[in-house]
Amino acid sequence: MHIVRWDPDDPEALRYCHEVERAAQRADDPSGPPMTPRELRVFLSEGWEANPCEAWHGSPGNGRTDRTASGLYWMEVPDQENRDRARLLLLVHPACGGRGVERALLRHAAGRARANGRAVLSLLARQGSPVAAFLRSAGATPTLTEVRRVLDLRTAPPGHFTTLRETAAAKAAGYSLVSWLGVTPEPHLAGVAQLLNAMNDAPREAEGTQEAVWDAGRVRQRHDSSMVKMGTRGYSVAAVHDVTGEMTAFTQLEVNPEIPEWGHQGPTAVTRPHRGHRLGLLVKATMLEWLATAEPAVERILTGNADSNQHMIAVNEALGYDVLAPPWQWFELPVAAVPGEPGELRRVPGLTGPAPASDPQARTQARPHGAGLGPGLTGPSRPRHWPHRPGPGPGLTGPGGRPPPRPHWAGLRPGPSPTGRVRIMHFCGLYAFASAKGFPVTKAFPRDSG
Length: 450
Fold this sequence. Notes:
CATH class of the largest domain: Alpha Beta
Helix content: 25-40%
Number of domains: 3
Number of strands: 12
């Protein structure tokens, strides 16, 4: 399967990646909300918090004439915390499941994780889906389960949210409410950062993950980024302590005007010193009252919580949320446990030289002819190679010349021989043979294909 990097400026690539996402969602999550092409484009580019991301997609053909995507993966490589980890989401078209697409995507993603210096993959899949079954078979360990819940506003009893707000307000004397539409106003940036930090004691996707550290600048640049780029309408309600002026609780919700019948619950948090005053229920009930007038077309609201977060689950159940299957399942898999792609060479200490910062596995030191590749550098007998092109071709010959960066791995350069010009494209066994016969050859190791 040919795997290529997703180009955010290629509308055709977005179209068939969206087809894969929609087909997978219809098969695995028929009751859930759809994702628009614009939302998918932003998600593949930067995720939900503007971390560095990359996405790759494959097709069953050669990737140039066959424009039908069989699957894709999205990988987030955090650049502040958890720099030893990569988050990975695999999506496979149901028509292509069970044909090795999942395995090819996982192997390619593990290679990219290695190239980014990551040791652990945090993987996400819908529980019970073919991708989840594949990850288990590949040795991934289930960690956190995120249970989704949906609130159907069409069946909510009249006055239900007002009653809940008034009940919570009676327990929250000494607090006032503030609200805003859209991005976080400048005066509230520090308060939102404090509340996002308060969420660090909530269950996380795996043990050993580092806590995110938020400040005002990070809220402005990353927390609000996806809402602006996706074009969603964001609503925020916060509680402020009257005596200190401290923002002590908040909740956020977004509505996409292209799918106005669905609302998406964002983070809800209460700082630890102010818990026990029903502030979480207060801000969420107030949000639902506001939404009834601001977004009358909204029929259902989707939220999700770790299955161990009993306090927030109790708040949501009081509001009327019901479980929506399937839940999201997090997995953990060491990168080293994933076999490399056919022909992939891994960097080995003592045998490899300095590498570019963008790909620490890309360069190797020259070794004597016939010396072999050494432990850890040998691969299958038939790795991928570049198609034969008549004549030397640009970038393939020349004294001391280096080939340009290749998306996979080049073979051996052609050169003169006693019987004329010979092109040698195979990689491992033929290298020693060609050297012994006196052909001038140069090894080329895998480089960043992006």
